[in-house]
Write a sequence for this structure.
């Protein structure tokens, strides 16, 4: 036994281990049950998990939406959209270029309005009133609802019909008017379905997406008192048209939302796929538009840009069926009332961290790519607004308490940011909501205890070494298969702590001689161990060091490396995160290295992207963080851009009978670091390996840091989706570039009995450079 290793302690009986785990889970969940809002979230969460059809419905939708959306933007570019690539270029890149150009333009137009919102509002009001409309402002939901109720009373209205209005859902105007004796009927098919079901919309564009046609048929049959088809959607649509036709003709007042308000003309723009929108806004003698200030746009040209983005982002259409422009009443006896609702919007505008969220055009693309949304649906997310934008809006519209539970579902994959048509930094804003929730309500006791240990290097080191000894008798290979776990956690076999972490294995080790002539020769590289890899995957750290040395780099391992603080950042504990970040910056500043390379891409995100933001209000530490960020690089980028590894620099024999492999990119490697296909090209071009295409490669694996512990059922479902895609490739080896993904997928595959070797990118490279005997 190594003399430096602590002596093993007696292992507690399995019953005691199980009791300790159950106690920890109980402590971790206890904090989530403190308030009525938290208990309500837990009820919605459990209800969603209990409905297996929900996840199936949403999975089918997400799988069809993304390729259709991408194709819609590709065709936009092919038809002469902005920034097309030259003829013969990759159509997907062409579409992405068109998307990027359009969203830059629309985001700039939105920002111009937000910067001078009172002026743009006055411009709109003046133009709308000249056209005969009445424009009013409501400070909150109560004021907006009260105005509409008073208007209905003055006009003697009894029947109100609505076209879809998210602001109406936000203010709960249906319930408000119904409580005052009015009949309120939703006329959008999806909205009518959820109204009949006594539910809220679960999606901003497709309110009833959570229901199958069989469920809709059952609902119609029960509510209408006659047999309705469970299989024929056209028959169900015909039923809705028949039932709603009389309501259109008899309505006294119509309520709609708006997709944009054009300041130069006082025009309301309404985009719909059903004719109900035009009937609601034209047939009743009174039309009320409920809208937020953020819908203002300067000109018709800006509205046209929004049209080009909205349909493609929302429903993957080139244009929706109906685009209606309303400038004043359309007849002499018609009243048009436009009610601007604040309800927290000006507070959001005055908060620099959240102002960009007011660019939102309500396309719901963020929900359409969200892995947790696919599992639990929109009723669990947010309060009224679902998906990532709901987590950001909810604290301002309904209070922080209503976002504290749902925000914990976010796996920080950053997919929402890649498809947002107005460049909202949703992932960063969700982390800001998480930090505010942690500050207001505290962290769960178990998480608070874990961070207290994690943030103290000596204590963390001792705890890991003791835990490695305690769990050794339960270990079976790299796993703890005999550890008694609660049922919700049995889908993923826990990894085994290494008895000798990477820092011990690398201490005093003689460097390998250079094997390749690369651009890294003579460069000094500091290897940041990454605490998860250090303790659970020391072989990945060793492989990283060996690959760097093979490229001719001089490798140094800074002593006494701490954790970078990413767990605290993810948890929203920013004071602890800053303390850990300062310690890390000092440790890496002490090393005279050209680059800092780590086997953990997540640490690259923390060091290079999170640190400068973490110290935004501290100029001195921000400068130090930025200097460090300039040196930090992930392994794949170092090997391709610095070392220049490629087919011309690495001459290896054919791989022979190498096992088939596929590649899973860590989601932030693509969505934050922008690696794209660089790791795959490294495997194929430099190493000569055949990499099989992984379906839905861009979709997160479900690890999400502590999210997989907070919501194991969600993480399990997302991991199962990933592993099913891996199985479809027929590959025997799954390669990834982040330790969290590796341990998550390795444990999930092991628990499921799926024969799959999951390895780090560095391990594949070093095996190819130096085949083992």
């Amino acid at each position: 036994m190594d003399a430096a290793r602590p002596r093993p302690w007696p292992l507690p009986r399995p019953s005691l281990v199980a009791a300790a785990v159950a106690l920890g889970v109980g402590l971790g969940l206890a904090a989530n049950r403190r308030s009525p809002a938290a208990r309500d979230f837990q009820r919605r969460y459990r209800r969603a998990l209990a409905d297996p059809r929900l996840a199936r419905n949403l999975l089918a939708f997400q799988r069809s939406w993304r390729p259709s959306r991408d194709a819609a933007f590709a065709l936009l570019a092919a038809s002469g959209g902005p920034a097309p690539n030259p003829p013969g270029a990759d159509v997907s890149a062409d579409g992405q270029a068109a998307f990027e150009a359009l969203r830059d333009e629309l985001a700039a137009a939105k920002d111009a309005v937000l910067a001078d919102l009172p002026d743009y509002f006055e411009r709109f009001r003046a133009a709308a009133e000249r056209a005969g409309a009445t424009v009013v402002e409501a400070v909150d939901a109560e004021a907006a609802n009260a105005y509409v109720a008073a208007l209905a009373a003055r006009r003697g209205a009894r029947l109100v019909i609505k076209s879809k209005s998210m602001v109406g859902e936000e203010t709960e105007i249906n319930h408000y008017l119904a409580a005052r004796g009015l009949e309120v009927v939703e006329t959008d098919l999806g909205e009518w379905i959820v109204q009949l079901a006594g539910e809220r919309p679960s999606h901003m564009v497709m309110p009833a997406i959570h229901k199958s046609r069989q469920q809709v048929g059952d609902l119609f049959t029960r509510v209408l008192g006659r047999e309705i088809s469970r299989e024929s959607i056209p028959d169900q649509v015909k039923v809705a048209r028949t039932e709603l036709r009389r309501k259109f003709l008899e309505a006294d007042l119509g309520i709609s939302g708006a997709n944009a308000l054009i300041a130069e003309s006082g025009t309301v723009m309404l985009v719909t796929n059903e004719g109900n929108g035009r009937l609601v806004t034209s047939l009743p003698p009174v039309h009320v538009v409920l809208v937020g200030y953020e819908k203002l746009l300067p000109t018709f040209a800006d509205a046209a840009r929004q049209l080009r983005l909205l349909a493609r982002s929302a429903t993957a259409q080139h244009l929706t069926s109906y685009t209606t422009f309303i400038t004043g009443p359309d007849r002499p006896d018609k009243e048009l009332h436009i009610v601007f609702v604040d309800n927290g919007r000006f507070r959001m505008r005055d908060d620099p961290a959240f102002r960009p969220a007011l660019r939102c055009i309500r396309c719901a693309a963020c929900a359409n790519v969200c892995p947790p949304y696919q599992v639990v649906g929109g009723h669990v997310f947010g309060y009224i607004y679902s998906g990532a934008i709901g987590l950001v809006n909810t604290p301002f519209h309904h209070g922080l308490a209503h976002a504290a539970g749902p925000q914990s579902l976010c796996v920080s994959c950053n997919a929402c940011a890649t498809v947002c048509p107005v460049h909202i930094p949703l992932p960063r804003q969700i982390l800001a909501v998480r930090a505010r929730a942690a500050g207001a309500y505290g962290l769960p006791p178990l998480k608070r205890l874990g961070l207290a240990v994690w943030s103290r290097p000596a204590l963390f080191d001792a705890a890991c070494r003791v835990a490695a000894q305690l769990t050794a008798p339960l270990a079976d290979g790299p796993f703890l298969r005999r550890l008694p776990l609660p049922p919700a956690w049995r889908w993923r076999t826990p990894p085994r702590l290494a008895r000798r972490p990477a820092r011990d294995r690398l201490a005093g080790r003689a460097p390998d001689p250079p094997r390749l002539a690369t651009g890294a020769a003579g460069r000094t590289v500091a290897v940041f161990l990454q605490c998860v890899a250090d303790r659970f995957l020391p072989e990945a750290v060793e492989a990283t060091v060996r690959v760097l040395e093979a490229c001719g780099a001089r490798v140094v391992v800074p002593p006494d490396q701490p954790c970078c603080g990413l767990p605290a950042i993810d948890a929203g504990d920013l004071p602890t995160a800053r303390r850990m970040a300062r310690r890390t910056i000092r440790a890496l500043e002490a090393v005279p290295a050209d680059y800092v390379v780590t086997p953990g891409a997540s640490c690259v995100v923390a060091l290079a992207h999170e640190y400068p933001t973490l110290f935004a209000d501290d100029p001195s530490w921000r400068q130090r963080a930025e200097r460090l960020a300039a040196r930090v690089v992930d392994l794949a980028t170092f090997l391709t851009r610095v070392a220049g590894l490629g087919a011309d620099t690495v001459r290896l024999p054919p791989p022979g009978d190498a096992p088939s492999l596929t590649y899973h990119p860590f989601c932030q490697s693509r969505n934050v670091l922008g690696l794209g296909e660089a790791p795959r090209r490294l495997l194929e071009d430099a190493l000569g390996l055949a990499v099989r295409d992984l379906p839905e490669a861009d979709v997160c694996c479900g690890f999400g840091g502590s999210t997989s512990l907070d919501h194991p059922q969600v993480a399990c479902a997302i991991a199962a989706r990933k592993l099913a895609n891996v199985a479809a490739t027929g590959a025997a080896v799954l390669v990834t570039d982040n330790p969290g993904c590796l341990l998550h997928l390795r444990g999930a595959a092991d628990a499921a009995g799926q024969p799959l070797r999951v390895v780090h990118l560095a391990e594949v490279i070093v095996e190819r450079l130096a085949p083992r005997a």
User: Anything to note?
Assistant: The two ends are 27 Å apart (CA to CA). The first helix runs from residue 14 to 30.
